[in-house]
Amino acid sequence: MIVEERMRTFINSLDAGNTPFLNELECSALSEGVPIIRKEMQSFIKTLLALKKPQRILEVGTAVGFSTLLMCEYSQPEMHITTIENYEKRIPKARENFRRAGRESQITFLEGDAGQILKELSGSYDLIFMDAAKGQYIHWLPDVVRLLAPGGVLMSDNVLQEGELIESHYLVERRNRTIYKRMREYLYELKHHPQLMTSIIPLGDGVSLSVKEEA
């Protein structure tokens, strides 16, 4: 673990950073204890955006809008992102950040339960980013796969649960056992889903990358 931490520190030290607005937003979120994507995940997303060049993105889990705005900044100008948030206290802050960034026209912000909203969405998305309630991923997967365009990418963050996922069920705190069980089920489904090709990467707190097979 010490070697891994040193490697992470070194890699992050090479990072060129983001725009001044995003850097400010990141510092503000961290100071307020709002969880946002880690430095190494930010770099990974920017590289993926440059490679994939998605036109339509769906994000499940907005928080204060940092990752939403990161994807806006480093995507093609014509990209549009739909993002879903259910935590009422963070919704006004996200809306304000979208306004301050001048990105409101590029973002469709949906408020409410992701499970219900996903069922009501139609069309297809080139990239879907899952970064919300981890215990719900397994329940949302059927609709997520339905909404993912052929050749599209499903990216799920924080899937290794600070390493807890590799521990025995009996070593996990009782309060965390449900999410432990569901996340293991989710990763199994991703790796065995007939429409998905998936890689699980020990980046940050773990990220899974799934590509939907072409029709």
User: The biggest beta sheet, please?
Assistant: 7 strands, mixed
Task: Count the DSSP helices.
Answer: 8
Work out the helicity level.
40-55%
Broad shape: globular
Strands of the widest sheet, in order across it, are: 3-2-1-4-5-7-6
Strand content: 15-25%
Q: Based on helices, strands and strand pairing, what is the structural class?
A: alpha/beta
Q: What low-confidence regions span 5 or more consecutive residues with pLDDT below 50?
A: none
What is the fold's blueprint, element by element?
Blueprint: H1 2-13, H2 20-31, H3 39-52, E1 56-60, H4 66-73, E2 80-85, H5 91-101, E3 107-111, H6 114-120, E4 125-130, H7 137-147, E5 148-157, H8 177-192, E6 196-201, E7 207-212
Parallel strand pairs: 1-2, 1-4, 2-3, 4-5
Antiparallel strand pairs: 5-7, 6-7
Helix pairs in contact: 6-7
